[in-house]
Amino acid sequence: IWSLNGTLIDLGSDYRRHMSGGNLIVNRLDRDQDTGIYQCTAFNTWGTILSSRATLKFAYLDNFKTQTTRSAVSVREGQGVVLLCGPPMHSGELTFAWIFNEYPYFVQQDSRRFISQETGSLYIAKVEPSDVGNYTCVVNNSITKGKVLSSPTPLVLRNDGAMGEYEPKIEVHFPDTVPAAKGSTVKLECFALGNPVPEISWRRTSGVPFPSKVKMKNSNAVLEIQNFQQEDTGTYECVAENSRGKNAARGRISFHAKPHWLQTMIDGALSIEENLFWECKANGKPKPSYSWLKNGDNLMAEGRRQIENGALSIAALNLSDTGMYQCVAENKHGIIYSSAELMVLASPPSFSKNPLKALLKARSGSDVALECKPQASPRAISLWKKGNEIVQRNERITLLPNGTLKIANVTRRDAGSYTCIAKNPFGTASTTGRLFITEPTRITQRPANMEIIVGESIVLPCQIASDPALDVSFSWAFNGQLIDFHGDADHFDRVGGSISGDLMIRNIQLNHGGKYVCVINTDVESLSASAILVVKGPPGPPDTVAVEEITDSTAQLSWKPGRDNGSPITGYIIQARTPFTVGWQAVDTVPEEINGNTLTATVVGLNAWVEYEFRVVARNSVGMGEPSPASAKTRTEDASECHSSTLFKIHM
Fold first, then answer.
1. Which of 262, 264, 296, 505 makes an SS bond possible with 281, Cβ 3.0 to 4.6 Å?
2. How many H-runs (helices) and E-runs (strands) does the chain carry?
3. Are 72 and 87 in contact (CB under 8 A)?
4. Residue ranges of the Ig-like domain (predicted)?
5. Residues in Cβ contact with 134 at an 8 Å cutoff, skipping those fewer than 6 apart
């Protein structure tokens, strides 16, 4: 429902107003009937809240009172004058201009002439003969774009001579206190009459210079501060000065801001007899005041209810406290609302959502916690029974404040049926479960660290002895990741029975080396055993074979070692190939036997002026590895004599 100026709007008898989805729609707006403050009240079975207030105003601009002409203003030359506009009744921001004699000749503002946008009046600091004529005030409404003109005001010169010089007289000055909102644009006006024409200047009395955002306009008659902030507050002074003297006007700009929330309350669901504490905090300038509403009505401090600024406390809640609450923060620049629902609960205990497990298994020697978590408002008092006997506290048995029963270092004597009985003023409920004590699970055969050759298969054992009442499951992890027995069935498989989790690994590859962990999970505990598997294979191919130096019969080679694949490299052989040989052949070297730590050798017995390629093969305890990539083709030097028709010696 909606209210206007505190009175409910009767939508049933009002053909111009109706609601759509909670929104109020007003047709054919009427300034007299529809102006005011609107507020929506929303309600349901849980309570009522008020919306923020909305103010509806109508911009308008009435005509000036009908008159043929205004009284003439008679002044002496050199004298200052003020021509009053006297704007008609209006609402909305106005702007002012003056016509001199006839449209479209408007008065141009300068250091001698000023039109106040606050009062609409025209100020002439020092009248000159050219100023004589008729002046008409033009008033514009910035919202409606309407415009009205006053009757002309004649300005005439007196014939008793010019006026002498005199000191400035400030006719336009800002109020003693100017409130300004954060982020707004503030304009201060200051203008003086005088002969000679006064000059206007501005300063802050604190001596702080103006920032660049401060602008002077209309020959310094207007000071404009854009994007006003708190640091712009203070006392501002306007000084009007000519050769005959000076005068000043001062005023303070104060900072103001509408309230905005720093902290609000949240919905609450509390048990009967519990205590409520809500606090809301708002910032604003001036500091906001607080009030509280319940279901749209003002809430006062009395009895169980205490209100202190933005804090509301209610002791020993009862069902009548249920409803919608609002914290209201207000200063003279605005009002804000924060809403929350309070539900006061009153119900007997119920274990429908948190019953005890029908069967709870625990390992002998472990600690057991039996939770008693009924839903109840107010909170229930709990009592435990084992069979028909009340459970008594002792050095092993503890009853926690939340109703949980803890038994330390359980034995088979602790097995049995346990019942938690919960009671509050509205009723009693109970839940029962059986505690079963099992013997600890033991790992009887663990996997051991192993070394294995590529291509072989092994079984990593993982066998246990466990209580027959337990459900047991086995899983394996490799280097921290669970093994996917379906995705990698070519290499991994489970073997063994219900008390065995043995892992078979077939056709082991180098990438199968690492840490294997067998994880055993039962109803009451989790165990694990691990082993490191080292996989050995022939060495990887050497790398970067290079011919460092070559003669007519020798070549000096160097290379880099490949991976040893789990077994140290014990030696290298060098092979060569020419256009005249079939495939790669071993060649003689110096040293004759190249050990695993040597990365250079000299090939001997080569033929002169023949193009050779070389490669290196490593070996370890597992066998010969893959050969290296071939070196670049290199030709031996020419020999002065050729003593052999063979290309090089071949070693089988």
1. 262
2. 1, 64
3. no
4. 1-57, 62-150, 168-254, 259-343, 349-438, 440-528
5. 100, 101, 102, 152, 153, 154, 155
Cα–chain-centroid distance for residue 546? 59
CA distances from 70 to 67, 85, 86 (A): 7, 11, 12
Element (H, E) at 285: strand 281-285
How far is it, in rounded angstroms, from Cα 292 to Cα 325? 7
pLDDT digits (tens, 9 = 90+) for 39-75: 999 988 888 899 888 999 999 999 998 766 789 999 9
pLDDT for residue 67: 66
By DSSP bridging, strand 334-345 and strand 268-271 are parallel
Query: Quick one: tokens of 579?
Result: 């256009």
Taking alpha carbons only, the member of 187, 283, 173 closest to residue 232 is: 187
d(CA 239, CA 28): 51
Classify 589 in phi/psi space as left (phi over 0), alpha (psi -120 to 50) or beta: beta
Q: Give the span between the Cα atoms of 263 and 244, in whole angstroms.
A: 59
Residue-level pLDDT at 651: 38
* pLDDT (tens digit per residue) in 216-240: 999 999 999 999 998 999 999 999 9
First to last CA, the chain: 107
One DSSP character per residue, 145-186 reads --EEEPPPEEEEE-SS-----EEEEEEE---SEEEEETT--E
pTM reported for the whole predicted model = 0.59
CA dist 410 and 159 (Å) reads 121
DSSP helix/strand/coil, 129: helix
Identify the bridge partners of residue 518 per DSSP, sorted by sequence position. Answer: 476, 529
The two tokens of residue 142 are 């910035």
d(CA 382, CA 402): 8
In whole angstroms, give the CA distance from residue 627 to residue 575.
9
Instruction: State whether residue 312 is helix, strand or coil.
Output: strand
The whole-angstrom separation of Cα 171 and Cα 118 is 13
- d(CA 184, CA 230) in angstroms, rounded, equals 11
The two three-digit tokens of residue 541, written as one number: 């191919």
Peptide bond into 196 cis (omega under 30): yes
Q: Where are the beta strands (DSSP E) in 190-244?
A: 191-195, 199-204, 214-217, 222-225, 234-242
* Amino acid of residue 267: D
Q: In whole angstroms, how large is the CA radius of gyration of the chain?
A: 50
